[in-house]
Write a structure and sequence with these properties.
The structure holds two protein chains of two kinds. Chain A is an all-alpha fold. Helix content of chain A is about 85%, strand content about 0%. Chain A has helices at about 1-15, 25-40, 45-65, 75-115, 115-120, 125-165, 170-180, 185-210, 215-245. In chain A, helix 2 runs parallel beside helix 6 (about 125-165). Chain B folds into two domains: about 1-80 and about 160-220, P-loop containing nucleotide triphosphate hydrolases (Rossmann fold), CATH 3.40.50.300; about 90-155, no CATH class. In chain B, helix 5 runs parallel beside helix 6. Classes of the chains: A mainly alpha, B alpha/beta. The interface of A and B includes residues 23, 115 and 126 of A.
């Protein structure tokens, strides 16, 4: 019953979020602001994690494939597949759910408890549209670029660590990351990213928008935003994987 | 002018507002007073549509607000300015951006015209030169004045103030009261103030509704309130010894 209440309220909120913008120029300005706030500010964490994870995947793959029956280019191939299919789209989005999701929920939650959202409503502004739509739009626009960068840095990190540690040669790694490449897998990855961007921003905004009480409740909303966004990311990851791979 | 007619509101099994009727006049400072928890802020929130009435009418110059469509309600709200208890300024925006916000949303003024209007509003509330400060950098009184500047930025027809003096020292309270009264008279606005501050009542109470246990218990003005025979109102007004001594002599 409680679940259906939240689902219903979530879709009612989305209906308000996607109603006609009251002033397009203000919304566009907000989207640009949010692209910087949500996207550009996440670059350092994504870059660091991607480079290190690429290196770790490469070294682990090289260790696991230490057999004369497995060609050494499999290290590069495995690194590319792991990063492109799962690490960058899913794991990085889970990290972004923590960083961006909690930020959105606490920002909107604090606005709710300090009556800033009431102030917007009384001015005659669709507060849900004004506050949430730019965040969703910004995430859907910028997340694919962040994930593309994550893929590049992850594969580059694998190359650097693999060659530097002697786990594989430069030629084998480069050959491996180009071997058996299927472009539809990129469509799959970026479809996941767009869906996850929508989930992270809309679910976090939902919890923030419906905060009531004080600072304690803002904290709870922030926690709920991360927990439910993460669960939904995994659930929709499974659904999309089934749709793309079970053809 | 705003009229409320027989409005009721229940939260759970507790009736907070009971059959309240009152008329708020244009160009006057209309006060809703009463002790904490009596339902005065709820009445204010019902009037601006933050809560929905269970029954009754809220007429903005004849338009029954609760019966209007969402778009029509938004159009009425564009004529409303509200000063919240905590200011409710947008933390991420400077003072100038806060005041300019309603202009950005609802007008097609040029950048220069908006800035001119912002400076005019800031001048009205005596905050000239503070344009680039953020809300976190303002004192309590300055926040209230900044919120008042934002509330009047778009030339509202109705101004709502929720406890404008709470948390302020007596001197700053008087400044805020005078600002509200001057703005009300200068721009001929229907102003509604929720307060339990007796200084405000005596200073600017043109038209007063005393709310007790969710009901309209007494109506009158600042001179009538000092001569009241209503026991509950008397207890509220003369709650402190100081008030009894200072104002009690006027009653006689």
């Amino acid at each position: 019953m409680n679940l259906f209440f939240h689902i219903g309220r979530y879709f009612m909120l989305l209906f308000r979020v996607f109603s006609k913008p009251q002033k397009l120029s203000v919304y566009i300005r907000q989207i640009i602001f949010e692209i910087n706030n949500i996207g550009i500010s996440s670059l350092p964490i994504i870059a660091i994690i991607s480079v290190f994870m690429g290196g770790i995947i490469t070294i682990q793959a090289a260790f696991g494939f230490n057999s004369p029956w497995v060609p050494l280019y499999a290290v590069g191939f495995t690194t590319r597949e792991s990063i492109m299919l799962e690490f960058s789209p899913t794991i990085v989005c889970l990290i972004l759910a923590g960083k961006v999701g909690s930020n959105i929920a606490s920002e909107i939650g604090a606005m709710r408890i300090t009556e800033q959202i009431d102030a917007l409503e009384i001015m005659g502004i669709n507060s849900a549209g004004y506050l949430i739509f730019p965040k969703i739009a910004a995430a859907v626009i910028i997340f694919p670029f962040l994930i593309a960068l994550s893929m590049f840095l992850g594969i580059w990190g694998g190359y650097f660590m693999g060659v530097a540690s002697g786990a594989c040669t430069e030629y084998e790694y480069i050959f491996g990351i180009q071997a058996f490449f299927e472009p539809w897998k990129l469509y799959y990855s970026f479809t996941k990213v767009v869906v996850f961007a929508f989930i992270i921003t809309s679910v976090s905004a939902y919890f923030g928008y419906n905060t009531s009480g004080g600072a304690l409740e803002v904290g709870k909303s922030s926690t709920n935003a991360v927990v439910y966004s993460s669960i939904l990311i995994l659930l929709f990851g499974l659904i999309l994987t089934n749709l793309f791979f079970n053809r | 002018m705003i009229e409320i007619k027989n409005i009721n509101k229940t939260f759970g099994d507790r009736q907070v507002v009971k059959d309240v009727s009152f008329t708020f006049y244009k160009g006057k400072t209309n006060l809703i007073i009463g002790e904490s928890g009596c339902g005065k802020t709820t009445i204010l929130k019902l009037m601006v549509g933050l809560h929905q009435v269970d029954s009754g009418e809220i007429l903005y110059d004849g338009q029954n607000f609760p019966k209007l469509s969402v778009i029509e309600q938004q159009n009425v709200r564009k004529k409303i300015g509200m000063l919240f208890q905590g200011g409710a300024l947008f933390d991420s925006q400077t003072l100038e951006e806060n005041v300019q916000f309603p202009l950005d949303m609802f007008t097609d003024l040029t950048k220069e015209e908006k800035l001119e209007r912002v400076n005019f509003c800031l001048e009205k509330v005596q905050l000239v030169g503070k344009n680039k400060l953020y809300p976190a950098e303002l004192s309590g009184g300055m926040k209230k004045r900044a919120a008042l500047a934002r509330a009047i930025a778009n030339n509202p027809s109705y101004l709502f103030c929720d406890e404008p003096n709470s948390g302020l020292d007596p001197k700053t309270s008087i400044v805020i009261d005078n600002l509200i009264r001057n703005i009300t008279q200068e721009f001929n606005i229907t102003t509604i103030i929720v307060t339990h501050d007796m200084n405000s009542v005596i200073e600017i109470g043109d038209n007063i509704m005393f709310v007790h246990k969710g009901e309209n218990w007494w109506t009158g003005n600042k001179s009538q309130i000092l001569k009241t025979d209503n026991q509950e109102l008397f207890d509220f007004v003369f709650a402190s010894e100081f008030m009894k001594q200072v104002l009690g002599s006027q009653k006689k």
